[in-house]
Amino acid sequence: MEKEKVMSFKDLLVWKQAMGLARDCYLMTRGFPKEELYGMTSQIRRASCSIPANIAEGTGRGSPKDYVQFLKIARGSVRELETHLLLSAQVNLTTAEVIAPILKQTESVAILLGRLIASLAAQKP
Q: How many CB atoms lie within 10 A of CB 18?
C-alpha cells in the first residue's frame, strides 16, 4: 500500500482530526452559561483552535526543527484542552458523558502528534 503524498497541512490526518476536535469544542461550549463566555468557554475554544493552528504554522516554517517545535506546542495545547474539559465537568458546566467523546478525540490527536514528532525526529537532516 502506497502512502499518499502530503501536499499541504490540510492533507495531514492529524490536522483534519484537530479541526474536527476544535469544531466539536465550539459546538459543545455553545451550551455553557453566558457568564462563562470569557472564562471556560473562551479557554476551551482557544486551546482547541491552537492545536490545528500550530500544526499548520509548523508546516510553514523553514526547518524540520521548527516544525517539530510547533507540533510540540500543539501537543501541549491538547493537554491544556483536556484539563479544561475535565474541569468543566467537575464544576458542572457540562457532564462526563458530554465530554467523553471529545476526550477520545484529544487522545487520538495526541497520539498522531506523537507519531509525527517521532517520525520527523528520526529523519536525517
A: 29
CB 116 within 8 Å of CB 14: yes
Tell me the three cell numbers of residue 53.
493552528
Confidence category of residue 61, pLDDT binned at 50, 70, 90:
confident
pLDDT tens, residue by residue, 5-60: 557 899 999 999 999 999 999 999 999 999 999 999 999 999 999 999 999 999 99
Is 63 exposed, middle or buried, given 0-12, 13-18 or 19+ CB atoms closer than 10 A?
exposed
- One-letter amino acid identity for 96? A
∠ CA 14-20-22, nearest 5°, is: 100
Which run of H or E residues covers position 110? helix 96-122
- What domains are defined for the chain? 9-122 (1.20.1440.60)
Q: Which amino acid type is present at position 26?
A: Y
- b or e along 72-98 (b: 16 or more beta carbons within 10 Å of the residue's beta carbon)? ebbbebbebbbebbeebbeeebbeeee
